[in-house]
Here is the input.
Amino acid sequence: MNFILVISDTFRKDHLGCYGNKWISTPQLDRFAKRSVVFDAAYAGSFPTVPNRRDVLTGRASFTYTDWGRLLDDEVVLPEMLREKGYTSMMVADTPHILQSGYHFDRGFDGWQWIRGQENDRLRTAPEKVTFPCKPERLRSGERVVGQYLRNVSDRAHEEDYFVAQTMREAAKWLERNYKRDRFFLYVDTFDPHEPWDPPKHYLELYEKGYEGEEVIYPIYGDAGYLTKKELAHVRALYAGEVSLVDRWVGSLLEKIEDLRLFENTLVIFTTDHGFYHGEHGMIGKIRIDKGRMRYEPLYREVADIPLVVSLPGKLGGRRVKGFAQPWDIAPTILELAGMRKPPSLQGKSLVPVLKGDKRAVRNFAVTSPSIVHGANPFVRSTISTSRWTLIYGGKAEEELGLAETAAVDSRARRMERAQPGEVAPELYDIARDPSQKRNVFSKNADAARRLHKTYVKFLKDTGTDEAHLAPRRHL
Here is the structure.
């Protein structure tokens, strides 16, 4: 069996038609979902971008032992594992962070191609001056990130010039040359629909016409209140346009897979790393950044609940799965289908039984979390999800602590704000009654909170979390 894995960064699950969205056009992925197994309870694992890719490629819950950064010397990645079975592996990516700054997530791949120019990738120095779509101070890292991006795309003329289009075209070309290989693993990673949001105008006009205000294509992460209602609506329309753009070009790759009759012998996966707040919970972004400092915000469902759509050869598609799945489950799934034993280092669980129709859940909860390796900091909150409840919990700070640094969310080191004792309280949500997570019912449901906390602590123990990282989280 061959394997094709497509990751589309920052793709909100609730913006796909196959997950119930009715206002955004995603015909290609919706068509793909009809032939696939659709996971209704897939959740992000380690947060955000780089930790997610580490989870996927190592099969481990990496937030428990490391942070945003390069692959560690002792981490074994999926293409290295598959090489033992004779697999040829290829990476095609435009997501910059896993390849720039010496992170070397290309490790183990027989070939790799980086489509340059996304976000702050230092691709070009000209034009020296660029025209911003709004006041630069209204953009996150305006000159350093958006300015560089605008230089990188300054000669873009057609839809085919957009990064997601380039990436999917190159992946399709690789398939044309390699589809007859005995066995292969193709990993395709596109940064879109991540900011900056600048879809072709014809996609934007599907959702909004006549807007004449400032275009905040890369909002400052934090409180959404600095955007007017019209600006926030425009932000949502820009993002929706990006989603449709991604759908169109991922769809072109799916069509190539179909043309080459690869669905007959290939596992195809579409997923993302996390979502994004567009005003929900008063937030814009996915964390808070202010004056060179950053603070993690709670990971509610808009960020934590992710799409996972898997096409398995044979007449096994057209089904929905209610059981939980996480990014570290992808590697064990692929290894089992490749006829390999799961190495002891892998912490994920194979989804093969579920894919083949077993109604028993592989897991009955999910944990989504930033790295917990920087000491006791209640701002670093893990989200523990079950079918009924969500607990958001960051442990306890026993004393005043200094500031640590993290390279999340863009490979640029920032100081992390630390919560002091008593500053941050746990949150509990009854998903059955409050799916939007607006009413914290922690005080009235202490028993449910304790059960979820017990599940969380056991998960940390089972994944070999160092006692120094576990200790502040042992008690609710």
